[in-house]
Amino acid sequence: MYTQRESSMEAIAVSELRSKLPSFLRRVERGEIVIVLSRGREVARIMPPAESMLTARKVLGRLKAGSVVKDVLSPVGGAWKANK
Fold it and tell me: If we measure between CA atoms, which residue out of 34, 32, 26 comes closest to residue 8?
């Protein structure tokens, strides 16, 4: 099963889903998971088919293999002009 760490998720009311269905379906096609709420209780989840998630994971794996992640949090050593 999918977890929140695997994909982005958004909880929406049934009424919002009805009024914006095409928009939410496009988001699901991009890999998002939509949680449908009725009176604040989860009644359904709309998610891409498992094979779509597998394809997305393969693409992300290829991107990760060719990426370099550096330290983006440490100071760079000089004062920023914005701080003056």
Answer: 32
